[in-house]
Amino acid sequence: MSELDERELLRLAELAEAGIAAASLVHEVRQPLFALRAMAQLGQQSAEGVRMDEVLALVDHLESLLAAWSDVGRREEARIYDVREVVAGVVRMLEGRRRQVAAQIAVVDGPSVWAHGPPFVARQVALNLLLNALDAVAPGPERQVRVEIRMTTNRATLVVDDTGPGVSDSVADRMFEPFVTTKPADRGTGLGLYVARRLCEEQGGELRHERLASGTRMVAQFSTGPMKNA
Question: For residue 26, what pLDDT band results from cuts at 50, 70 and 90?
């Protein structure tokens, strides 16, 4: 594959993943919209009207959803940023999906962890890894996702563990290749891990898979120094 072809595939992959994110946003927006419609209909039929504080709370929720998802897929200039803050934003974005699969996301407390680069890199990687983890635990009886952000030598490290069934050998050997996926078409493109790994590598880091006794661990690392291609 030529360098130009690879860049084109990467951009196509990013757009495809942004499409999956947009579908998730649509799902998230529908619930409060349905609630607003129900409240408006109730107000038409009731002399007591509608409690405006409840209406405003739903509107605030919709605004926060749109604000959180607005940066997905948008490239940003390189700067110093707090990986923990970016990951916390992704966890908030995925609250609806977490409730949908009745899972728990536990984020290990700790100090700020600083990286250098475009913040969209950590956001895109965290979004992909957490969505994968939630999808992995969804069918099982124990639906736990653990997130840890820590500083290692010259790198900021994001660790995502899940209690899903794990990854088979045949998939593990090819999981970072384009278009490799075990998800149905409406849940994945087979490009997410490919994009995530390339983004990590562009920032002087890496993305790797580790087996757990019960579940899967994904480890993403980002450089804390100047960008590789800066």
Answer: low
DSSP conformation class of 109: P
Whole-model pTM: value is 0.70
Split at pLDDT 50, 70, 90, the class of 227 is very low
| Cα–Cα dist 44/19, whole Å | 37
> In sequence order, which residues have a C-beta less than 8 Å from that of residue 204 and are 6 or more positions away?
155, 222, 223, 225, 227, 228
DSSP 225: S
Residues paired with 87 in a beta bridge = none
| pLDDT tens-place string over residues 95-113 | 778 888 899 999 999 999 9
Encode pLDDT of 161-220 as tens digits: 999 988 877 777 777 777 666 665 555 556 778 878 888 888 888 999 998 988 999 999
Element (H, E) at 194: helix 192-202
Q: Are 221 and 196 in contact (CB under 8 A)?
A: no
Single-letter code of the amino acid located at 183: K
A 10 A CB-CB count for 26 gives 9
Q: Which of 122, 115, 19 minimizes the C-alpha distance to 75?
A: 122
What average pLDDT does the chain have?
Answer: 77
142 is written with which tokens? Answer: 């124990």
CA distance 204 to 197: 11
Asked whether 177 and 197 are in contact (CB, 8 A), the reply is: no
User: Quick check: 94 and 100 in contact, CB under 8 A?
Assistant: no
Measure CA 85 to chain center.
13
